[in-house]
């Protein structure tokens, strides 16, 4: 039996109902909701037209759906972070971003090259798989903004804070790495374009994204919480649509001005949060975004499951398996653990933080975005990235609940 036309409405309704029930049902078990949705998607693949739902057949749809999901997640995690930004307060975040992430990318690219990949392809795989995911990591991230009281940084859950702040920032900072791979494939051997990449794609666009995010977040924060005219004071009127308007508006402005939109959205959320940290309007904004994120995430996981059933992993070979498995099980944990030495985190906290380098929707977006420049290798690239995401969903989904409970027990003692 094939499902098409009006039957898809039935599938969509059943998926939303499943999404409402599964998180509560699985809360006590070592099985995350993403695992369940992925499995349902694989079963669904036997009843729908799999060819039309493949990311290779629909790269633009895949790109924009993943893009929107990441944007909603970035605004949500930015609003959820209680800790004010600062060099010392965010020490673990900077270690993960500027030490662990480059080291992990270099290790993955080197492994790919040693296994026989062309340098540009190896670099693309490393760049695409670089960002930790803000979408699928809700079980190990901060749960939402704390309002009504002042929260001291020392009171935060350091593991959840590290994973949340890292995911918020490195989704934008993966863009220069993807551009580097694209330039290596399209512009040839290293040459004059490397200086252009450093000056513009690495530094220039990052500065523009941060500046737009900070400026827009400050302006909208002033308007929402302390505008002279009550009609502009959205915090008083309880309009959670501000979160979505801000997400899309800031991203659009940053992209129009050639900055990194992902980075701008996360910085804007942090800035808005800082304008009036104790106001409970932040909880409403976060809750509204969380619902949108859940719906989009369920859709992506279902489609990924359908694609897996439809043959997405058929081009996978030992090279792809080695890259994905080594990244999830060895390279990310090792590089992150080394980067977190001599911090205030306990040994168990360092290991848990290092282990949860979740790969997910960000990797899907970046491959859909850059894949057109790697047409010959595209099936293999999708198979490798798809395998890595599925492996991450399963491994991290099973490990999240017991490991976080273990940390909570140790803190209690």
Task: Write up what this structure looks like.
- The chain is mainly α and 413 residues long.
- The chain has one domain: Na+/H+ antiporter like fold, CATH 1.20.1530.20.
- The chain is 70% helix and 0% strand.
- It contains 16 helices and no strands.
- Mean pLDDT is 87; it is low at 151-155.
- InterPro entries: Cation/H_exchanger_TM (IPR006153), Na+/solute_symporter_sf (IPR038770).
- One of its GO terms (biological process) is proton transmembrane transport.
- Fill in the CATH topology: Na+/H+ antiporter like fold
Q: What is the radius of gyration computed over CA atoms, rounded to a whole number of angstroms?
A: 21 Å
User: How many helices does DSSP assign?
Assistant: 16
CATH-level-2 architecture = Up-down Bundle
Pattern of helices and strands: HHHHHHHHHHHHHHHH
Poorly predicted segments: 151-155
User: Would you count the extended β strands for me?
Assistant: 0
Q: In the CATH hierarchy, what is the class?
A: Mainly Alpha
Tell me the quaternary state: single chain
Subcellular location: Cell membrane
Pfam family, one: Na_H_Exchanger
Protein name: Sodium/proton antiporter (CPA1 family)
InterPro entries: Cation/H_exchanger_TM (IPR006153), Na+/solute_symporter_sf (IPR038770)
């Amino acid at each position: 039996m094939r499902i098409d036309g009006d039957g898809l409405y039935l599938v969509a309704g059943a998926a939303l109902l499943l999404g409402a029930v599964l998180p509560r049902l699985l809360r006590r078990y070592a099985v995350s909701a993403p695992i369940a949705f992925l499995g349902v998607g694989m079963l669904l693949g036997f009843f729908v037209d799999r060819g039309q739902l493949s990311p290779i057949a629909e790269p633009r749809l895949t790109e924009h759906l993943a893009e929107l999901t990441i944007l909603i997640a970035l605004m949500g995690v930015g609003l959820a972070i209680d800790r004010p930004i600062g060099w010392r307060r965010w020490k673990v975040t900077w270690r993960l971003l500027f030490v662990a992430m480059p080291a992990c990318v270099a290790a993955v690219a080197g492994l790919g090259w040693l296994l026989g990949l062309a340098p540009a392809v190896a670099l693309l795989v490393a760049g695409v798989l670089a960002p930790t995911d803000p979408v699928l990591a809700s079980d190990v991230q901060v749960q939402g903004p704390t309002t009504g009281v002042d929260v001291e940084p020392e009171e935060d859950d350091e593991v959840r804070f590290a994973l949340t702040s890292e995911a918020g920032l490195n989704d934008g900072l993966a863009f220069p790495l993807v551009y580097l791979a694209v330039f290596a494939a399209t512009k040839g051997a290293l040459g004059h374009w490397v200086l252009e990449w450093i000056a513009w794609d690495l530094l220039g666009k990052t500065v523009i994204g941060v500046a737009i995010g900070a400026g827009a977040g400050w302006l909208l924060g002033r308007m929402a919480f302390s505008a002279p005219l009550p009609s502009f004071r959205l915090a008083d009127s309880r309009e959670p649509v501000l979160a979505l308007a801000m997400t899309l508006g800031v991203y659009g402005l940053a992209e129009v001005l050639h900055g990194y939109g992902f980075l701008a959205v996360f910085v804007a959320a942090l800035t808005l949060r800082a304008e009036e940290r104790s106001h409970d309007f932040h909880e409403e904004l976060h809750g509204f975004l969380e619902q949108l994120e859940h719906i989009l995430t369920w859709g992506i996981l279902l489609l990924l499951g359908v694609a897996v059933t439809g043959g997405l992993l058929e081009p996978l070979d030992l090279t792809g398996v080695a890259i994905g498995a080594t990244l999830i099980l060895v390279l990310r944990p090792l590089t992150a653990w080394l980067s977190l030495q001599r911090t205030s985190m306990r040994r168990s906290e360092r290991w848990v933080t290092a282990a949860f380098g979740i790969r997910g929707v960000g990797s899907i977006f970046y491959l859909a975005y850059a894949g057109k420049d790697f047409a010959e290798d595209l099936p293999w690239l999708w198979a490798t990235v798809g395998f890595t995401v599925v492996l991450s969903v399963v491994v991290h989904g099973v490990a999240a609940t017991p490991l976080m409970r273990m940390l909570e027990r140790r803190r209690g003692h």
